[in-house]
Structure formats: C-alpha cells, structure tokens
C-alpha cells in the first residue's frame, strides 16, 4: 500500500496510515514494514478501515487506512510503502526509459547532471540524470534510457511508471527498467 496520509491518534499511541492497496490483500494481524526511509520497523496491523467502516481485510484496488502501533510513528510518511516484510526494497539508483514532452508543454533539453523531480508513488523525490555514453543532450520529444540517482531511497519495482518535473514544470514521463542500488 502506498501511504498517502498519516495521522497520529491517541497522543501518538496509534498511527493511521491511509492509501491505495496496489496488490494482494492485508488483514488484521498481518505484519507490515514501512519501506522508504532506512530500515523499517515491522508492525502488526491493529485495524483496517475503508471509509467510515471497520473491515477485516482490504484487497488490491481499494483505498484503506491501516491502524498501526505508535512505535512506527517516525517510520511512516507520505510516499512510503507498507508491505509484507521482505517483499519490496527501497532503491536510490535506477535506470529508466524517459520520454520528454514538447517544448511548449514544459519539456526542454536534458543533460547529464540535470535535476529532475520524479513523482514515484505519492511523493516527489529529487534525482540527478546521467545520460548514456555518446549522448550529450536529450532534446524535447525524444526517448532515452537514462540513469537516475535519487537524493533518498524510494520503494521501486521494474515497470513502475512515473511523471517528472524539471524547473518546476511537467517535463515528461518514465518507466523504471532496472534497479541498481
């Protein structure tokens, strides 16, 4: 589940993390680990809510809120992923095939060392682009496989699609092709 909002309840003794479940299912009592900010603390799901109703389980495609113990307070934030322990990792470097928008739609030339804001799941992550050898500049309306080094690790999987911005303007979209570290 991608975390979209986090609320502290009962003076921080409980954490309510809401978001959309991407795949699988989650039940009360299942163990989940927040992925996206260092080593996550495994926690047991104390309750699940869909809208205003408490439910025993939530399945892929639904928006749900998971009630977790307060011990995970600092480890859950917007853009993190709550997943079964060991099922997904956070990466700081990845290869992606990117497509730049037209110049009048915000796209512009991209060079090695340019900063992009990649919107990976529910949060933006700053990244630096490295173009492939032999390519000095990537002009608008072109495709290329590039390496992106993020400022902080983010939960990623091959095939994940993402939009990105450059200088505060929508500049294009990409697809994660390879995870490196």
Automatic annotation (TrEMBL):
It comes from Streptomyces glaucescens. Keywords: GTP-binding, Nucleotide-binding. One of its GO terms (cellular component) is cytosol. GO terms for molecular function: GTP binding; translation elongation factor activity. It comes from the Bacteria. This is Elongation factor Tu. Gene3D superfamilies: Translation factors. PANTHER family: ELONGATION FACTOR TU, MITOCHONDRIAL, ELONGATION FACTOR TU-RELATED. The keyword Cell membrane does not apply.
């Amino acid at each position: 589940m991608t975390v979209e909002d986090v609320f502290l309840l009962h003076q921080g003794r409980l954490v309510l993390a809401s978001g959309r479940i991407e795949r699988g299912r989650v039940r009360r009592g299942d163990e989940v680990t927040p992925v996206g900010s260092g080593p996550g603390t495994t926690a047991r799901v104390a309750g699940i809510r869909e809208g205003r109703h408490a439910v025993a389980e939530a399945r892929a495609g639904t928006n749900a809120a998971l009630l977790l113990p307060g011990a995970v307070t600092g480890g859950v934030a917007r853009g993190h992923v709550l997943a079964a322990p060991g099922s997904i990792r956070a990466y700081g470097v990845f290869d992606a095939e990117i497509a730049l928008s037209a110049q009048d739609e915000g796209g512009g030339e991209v060079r090695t060392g340019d900063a992009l804001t990649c919107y990976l799941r529910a949060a933006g992550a700053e990244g630096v682009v490295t173009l492939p050898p032999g390519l000095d500049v990537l002009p608008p309306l072109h495709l290329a496989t590039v390496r992106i080094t993020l400022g902080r690790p983010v939960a990623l999987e091959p095939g994940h699609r993402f939009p990105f911005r450059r200088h505060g303007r929508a500049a294009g979209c990409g697809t994660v092709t390879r995870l490196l570290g």
